[in-house]
Amino acid sequence: MKDEIEQYLAAPGKKVSLKNYDTRYRGNLEKEEGKERLEEIKLKLNAAQETLYAENTRSVLIIFQAMDAAGKDSAIQHVMSGLNPQGCQVYSFKAPNSEEYDHDFLWRHCKALPEKGRIGIHNRSHYENVLVCKVHPEYVLNENIPGYQDVKKIDNAFWKKRYDSIRNFEQHLNENGTVIIKIFLYVSKEEQKQRFLDRINDPAKNWKFASGDIAERKLWKQYMTAYEEAITATSTENAPWYIIPADQKWYARLAISHILAETFKKLNLKFPVLAKEEAKKLDDIKAQLLDEE
């Protein structure tokens, strides 16, 4: 599985073409075996989280991006279910409100960053500003950026600056102890159609469907181009993108769990070792407790 995960890494400095990725891929696994492996990895993630919390020098930020119905919510639910909720925080970003528009586009995401020792999960993220905003550049006008009061001004140079801002932002976070993992759940247009139909046909899932999803579906090609350009411009050594096949939800969850486990392994996390003076204090306290009647 480790070798398979490498093929989903968007290599820094190389142009991404989504046609080279198979959304239906499931490896040589069967669904039940995949589920069993996921449960095993959850135990490793739980242990890694405890060490991350104890070490308290680094934080982990996991970013999920995808088209509607790609399985972001369920992936977060299943992969992260073994973690201690006290050390984990999830933010689901919607369209910016008036206060958020009064700040730069990274402001609200800075506010949601995980503290040291914690895992932060961003369901959608600052990348919306180079994805949905690139498909709908008129949204950028709401930011009231000097010199950009006309959609015609929002050109390639504008997007290059925005990619630069994102890379610099993530480099700053990394240099200060935040490990960044970026997941793009790549679902096919055909599978999205089926999942939309499932939501419509099942009354219990009707609430998940929004009529606006169909309007965005018509812009599929534009979104795929936006994803290719954003991933190409922002996949770096310290903040890599992983393009995960998402037509099989169980496989996507397993792939994500492996990426997280491998990332934690590379961190070489250790429980803190007490100084001799502190260790002696513990020995003294232990002796006092044992002497109690």
UniProtKB/TrEMBL annotation:
Gene Ontology MF annotations: kinase activity
Keywords in alphabetical order: Kinase, Transferase
Residues annotated as transmembrane: none
Gene3D superfamilies (UniProt xref): P-loop containing nucleotide triphosphate hydrolases
Polyphosphate kinase-2-related domain mapped to chain residues: 29-268
InterPro entries, per database record: P-loop_NTPase, Polyphosphate_phosphotransfera, PPK2-rel_1, PPK2-related
Keyword Transferase attached: yes
Family: Belongs to the polyphosphate kinase 2 (PPK2) family. Class I subfamily.
Protein name (Swiss-Prot/TrEMBL): Polyphosphate kinase 2 family protein
Organism: Pedobacter panaciterrae
Lineage, broadest ranks: Bacteria, Pseudomonadati, Bacteroidota, Sphingobacteriia, Sphingobacteriales
